[in-house]
Recover the amino acids of this structure.
């Protein structure tokens, strides 16, 4: 019988950051309330922030909204009414 082992070594990066006192104390209280370490709180918060603000995710969400034909169909009557109003207002204009 042959065994194959895969070793994964994860490194933690230590860094120093500056926080306003109010944010620091709020984070301390939150970590204590949740029963997690300060580091775990910061990792969770930063991970969530990065997920929410990832450019690819933002682009994907915008594509989902604006790439959806139902979106345009929903606003088509309004768009057409606006276009007709502009045509009516500018029918005597000379360009």
């Amino acid at each position: 019988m042959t065994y194959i082992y895969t070793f994964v070594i994860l490194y933690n990066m230590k860094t120093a950051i500056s926080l306003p006192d109010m944010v620091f104390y709020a984070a301390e209280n939150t970590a204590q309330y949740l029963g997690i370490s300060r580091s775990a709180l910061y990792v969770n918060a930063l991970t969530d922030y990065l997920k929410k603000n990832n450019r690819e995710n933002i682009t994907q969400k915008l594509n989902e909204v604006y790439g959806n034909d139902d979106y345009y169909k929903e606003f088509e009557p309004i768009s057409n009414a606006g276009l007709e109003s502009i045509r009516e207002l500018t029918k005597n204009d000379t360009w």
User: Anything to note?
Assistant: DSSP finds four helices and no strands in the chain. The mean pLDDT is 79. The chain has two domains: 20-53, 54-90.
